[in-house]
Amino acid sequence: MRSEKKSGRSFVRARAALVAGTLGLLLAVAGCGASGDSMDNGAKAADGKAAPREGFADEGGAAASAAPEEQADGKKAAPKPGGTHVIRTATLLVEVKSVPKAAAAARGVAEGAGGLVASENTERLDDTYETSHLVLRVPQERFQEVLRELAGSGKLLSRTSNAKDVTDQVVDVESRIATQRASVARVRELMDQAEKISDVVALEGELSSRQSDLESLLAQQASLKDRTSLATITLDLTPPDAPGDDGPKDEDPGFLDALGGGWDAFVTMLRWIAVAFGAAFPFLLTAALAVAVWRVLRKREAARRAAPAVTAAPAGKDGASAS
Fold first, then answer.
1. Which key words are in the record (predicted)?
2. pTM for this one?
C-alpha cells in the first residue's frame, strides 16, 4: 500500500513538473517574439520609412500629411494660420474737417492696401456741410493696419469690430462639394451605360437636380472665400458742428432771447387767430345773413298787423256823428 502511494505521489510530481516546464517554455517563446517585434518597430521608427501595407499606400500618405507635425519633446506643433477662416468686419464714425479730402484719403488707403471701395454715398446737408458713407474691402492681413490709419484720419467718435470664425462651415462646404461632384460623375456614367429612353430621361432629371445642388454649393464657397479673404470696413465721415449735432448751448437765456421768444409767441398767436377766423368766416357770414332776413320779415309782419287797426278807427267816428 505504501509503495503504491509513493508511486502515485511521484507520478503527480512528475506531471506537475512537466506542466510547469511547458508553461515556462511558452512564456519564453512569447517574450522573444515580443522583443523581436519591438526591435523591428524601433528600427522602422528610426529609419522613418516603414513600408505601407499593401493596398493602403494612398491612405497612409494622406493620413500622414493630414496629421499635425510633432516636435521632438512629443508636443503638437501650432496649427498653420492658413487653416483658419475668419470673417472680419468693422464700423468707424470719424469727425473730420474736410469730408471730401478725408473720403479721397480713405479711398487711397484702401486701394493702396490692395483692396477696393465697394460703395460710397455722399449727402449734402446744406451749402456748408456734407457727410460720406463708404464701404471698403481690404485684405485680411492688412485689416488692422488700414483700420488704424482710418481711425487716425480725424476725431474718432465710435468704433466697433467683429470677427466670426467660419472654418467649420468652409470645411463642410468643401466636403459637400467633393461628394456632389462624385455623385454627378456617377450619374454621367450611368447615362453613358443607359440603353432605354425612359432611363435616359430619368437620369437627365437626376443629373439636372444634382448639378443645381453643386452650383449652389459652389456659390456658397465663392461667397465664403470672398468674405474670408477681404475684410469689410464701414466708414462714416462727418464734419464738426454739422446740423443736427448737439453743440454748446447757453444755459441762462438773456433779455434779447426772452424778447425774441415772446415776439415769436405773439406772432404765432396772431397767426392762429387769423387761421381760426378764416375758418369760421363762412359760418359767421351765413349766420349774419339769416339774422338780417329774419329781422326784415319780422318788421313786415308787424306792419301788416298794424294796418287794419289804423283803417278801422275813422269809420267808427263817422258812425257816431251820424247818429
1. Membrane, Signal, Transmembrane, Transmembrane helix
2. 0.47
